[in-house]
Design a protein that fits this description.
binds nicotinamide-adenine-dinucleotide; binds acetoacetyl-coenzyme A; 282 residues; globular; 8-stranded mixed sheet
Length: 282
């Protein structure tokens, strides 16, 4: 059983993973480079737990206990003792390589190093760690407290034991794992992100309004939210990073990111996290 984890990154995903682990009874160290990001992360965890209390899925006492299990810090040394480290920082190869090199000097024997990357090669990330057999992709979905899936991605070096331990951990915190071979975007994002990209091309071409495109996919295909609203939920910078990995990784023009997406990221319109994306968010 895992009882102590460290999560690197306190953004949309890091906060969601930390919350889910804490609610499952684990002690969590959440690390970010920015104190402001830690504060935002803790606030979003508080809000999300409050929502669960309001819907009677959690008691007020369970909320307080879960929050008390989370330690938020900018000090990487605080991750010593974690049986599992989950890297959930910005979707950028250089950022992740730097973090993984740093982790290698801090973790103890047997610690599993998981990355929540949405698209980047697990094999490439594992190659900078002295114990690559202990590195695995553990891809959660947004919002983490709600979405049941975890994609487990084995790099070329990932050992059977690491895979088995990651699988047991996913089940321990109430998630349903699927196992996927290492490949750009893995399974779900390879299918999902081109669909969202196509919706952005449609908007760019003036095919319909954002609202009508989203309503089309909600009412016509039963999606819980439309693709443009989903882009805002994910973060347009993250979506663009995933599409670029798919485009370069497969060297196939069908993954070309929509110019409107690039333009919006350049403008700082990143979706919910910046207050503006395809929609305006309060
Ligand atoms: N924390 C806790 N609970 C939350 C929550 C959060 N952050 N967000 C939503 N919920 C809960 C609500 O409390 C509510 O609970 P009940 O069913 O008990 O009422 C339930 O989820 C539904 O929420 P809402 O009624 O507020 O809103 P909704 O019906 O629109 O659902 C949603 C919100 C679950 C996000 C839904 O819109 C949805 O499923 N959207 C699609 C999400 C999706 O596709 N995620 C994958 C993104 S891609 C990805 O993650 C991979 C990547 O690498 C980019
Ligand atoms: P985000 O932009 O919300 O947060 C990223 C956080 O990482 C920021 O708080 C930033 O300060 C922090 N960070 C940057 N460099 C760091 C470092 N060296 N050490 C510690 N923290 C650092 O991003 P996000 O949406 O939470 O995405 C995080 C990861 O999860 C990415 O790899 C992304 O692809 C993946 N992911 C995202 C989603 C999604 O829907 N947003 C879904 C699944 C997976």
């Amino acid at each position: 059983m895992t009882n102590q984890v460290a999560v690197i990154g306190a953004g949309i995903m890091g906060a969601g993973i930390a919350q889910t682990c804490a609610v499952a009874g684990l002690r969590v160290t959440m690390i970010d480079v920015a104190q402001a990001a830690l504060e935002r992360g803790l606030l979003s965890i508080d809000n999300s737990l409050e929502r669960l209390v309001a819907r009677q899925k959690l008691t007020a006492v369970q909320k307080t206990e879960a929050l008390a299990r989370i330690q938020a810090t900018t000090d990487y040394a605080a991750l010593a003792g974690a049986q599992l480290v989950i890297e959930a920082a910005t979707e950028n190869l250089d950022v992740k390589l730097r973090i993984l090199r740093q982790l290698a000097t801090l973790v103890v024997k047997d610690t599993i190093i998981a990355t929540n990357t949405s698209s980047i090669s697990i094999t490439q990330l594992a190659a900078v760690v002295p114990v690559p057999e202990r590195v695995i992709g553990m891809h959660f979905f947004n919002p983490v407290p709600v979405m049941a899936l975890v994609e487990l991605i084995r790099g070329l070096q990932t050992s059977d034991e690491t895979h088995a331990r990651a699988l047991a951990f996913a089940q321990q915190i109430g998630k349903t794992p699927i196992s996927v071979r290492n490949s750009p975007g893995f399974a779900v994002n390879r299918i999902l992100c081109p669909m969202i990209n196509e919706a952005i091309f449609a908007l760019q071409e003036g095919l319909a309004t954002a609202e009508d495109i989203d309503n089309g996919m909600k009412l016509g295909c039963g999606h819980p939210i439309g693709p443009l609203a989903l882009a805002d939920l994910v973060g347009l910078d993250t979506l663009l990073a995933v599409l670029e990995v798919l485009y370069e990784g497969f060297n196939d023009p069908k993954y070309r990111p929509a110019p409107l997406l690039k333009e919006m990221v350049a403008a700082g319109y990143l979706g919910r996290k910046s207050g503006r994306g395809f929609y305006v968010h309060s």
